[in-house]
Amino acid sequence: DRQNPGSDLAAEAAAALAAASIVFRPTDSAYADTLLSNAEQLYDFADTYRGKYSDAIPNAQNFYNSWSGYEDELAWGASWLYEATGNVSYLQQAESVYQDQLGGLEQGWTINWDDKSYGAAVLLAQQTNSDRYQQDVEGWLNSWVEGRNGVQITDGGLRWISQWGSLRYAANTAFVAGVYADTVRDPKGEFGSLAETTTDYLLGNNPRNSSYVVGFGENSPLQPHHRASHGGTWGDFNSASPNENILYGALVGGPDKPNDFAYEDSRGNYITNEVALDYNAGLTGSLARMASVFGGTPLSTTELNALPGVAVVNII
To answer: What is the pLDDT, as a whole number, of residue 311?
Structure first.
């Protein structure tokens, strides 16, 4: 509410609804209008009553604190609203927040559940063709390509920046690098290459010859840190047996050091083997981009039903 605002939360929701309106516009314009109307109302609230959501909800601070503040979401939300509406006032707002309050990108970090400044910069680079945003994005991506500013490269080619859930950061960067390469520029071909080699690494092209996506590829994780996947009790939590339920498609945390073999497939190790929605966000986008570039055929219902623990119901 007005006394307890959450600009980051509201602007992020506005961005999601604005982006969704673009997707639905060709097939359901009425629904797209509803999404966009709500997006604009949310953004107006976020911009008018400024504050971090984790200040309004203190219980969130120990789990999902808004470390980056709310300015990144204000730029991100305005960029998506400009994309959805063509209203230049949203573009002006996005540029103003980005330039005056964000001031650029931290080159040794990346887009994640908390920090959307990288995504905003890519959108602004697309929308304005300005050298300012291209230089910011390419300076950041070059740190990942070359292994600078805190980005370390393992012998197998993984870009590593943080112990907890290291693969989510690699996947997020792969997705955005691919988007930038496809929609803005890729002068040396290195951004598209980073997107593709990183995704291949996650799927098993690495020194361990192991996929980090549950239920996919060779030697995929058997004990992801996930209650429903475990399916057992505290009494067998530390057993060596695989989880009872295969959590198909979940990306685990990955190596907890800049070493390809610093990984433990153990449900008790929440640093290397936890799964989360934000872990899969960038991976899903990167896989969608890979499919658009290289093609592929979705599994049929028969093939899906042949997977252990899967039952596909056709709804008519």
So the answer is: 72
